[in-house]
Amino acid sequence: MSTNLLTVEDLTVAFEGQSRPVLSRVNLQVPADGWMGLVGESGSGKSLTSLAMIGLLPPGASVLGGRVLMDGVDLLAQSPDQMRRVRGSRIGMIFQSPRSALNPLMTVGAQIARSISHQTGVPHAERGAVELLRKVQMPDPELRVHAYPHQLSGGMCQRVLIAMMLAARPRLLIADEPTTGLDVTVEAEILDLMHSLQEETGMAVLLITHDLGIVAEHCREVAVMYGGRIVEEAPADLLFRDPGHPYTAQLMATLLRADRPVDFAEAVGNRHPDVAAGSGCRYAPRCPHAEQACITTSIELEIAGPGHLVACRRRRQLAGLSIDEKAGMTRVGPRS
Amino acid sequence: MAVLEVAPLEGPVFTNRRSRIPVSISAAVGIGILAVLVVLWVWGAVAPPHNPLATDPASQLLPPGAGHVLGTDKFGRDILSRVMAGTGLDLAIALLVTGIAFTVGVLVGSLAAYNGGWLDDIVLRVVDMVLSFPAFVLALAITAVLGNSVRNVVIAIAVAYTPYFVRLARGEVLSARRSDYADNARAVGNPGWRVVFLHLLPNCVTPALVQASLTMGWSILDASGLSFLGLGIKPPTAEWGVEVSEGASNIVSGEWWTSVFPGLAITSAVLSFNLIGEAIQTRFSRRR
Amino acid sequence: MKSPLLQVSDLTCEFRVRGGTVHALNGVSFAVEAGETVGLVGESGCGKSTLARCIVRLQRPTAGRLVFDGQDYAGWPERRIRRLRRDVQMVFQDPMTALNPSWSARRLIMEPLLLHRIPEREARLRHLLDEVELPEGILNRRPGELSGGQRQRVAIARAIGPRPRFVVLDEPTASVDMSIRAGLLRLLRKLQREEGLTYLFISHDLSTVRHIADRLLVMYLGKVVEEGAMESVFSKPSHVYTQVLLSSIPIPDPSVHRERLPMLGEPPSPTEIPTGCPFRPRCPQATDECKQPQPYYEVAPGHRAACRLAKPAGGRETFAGVKRGVA
Question: Does B22 touch chain A (CB under 8 A)?
Answer without folding.
Answer: no
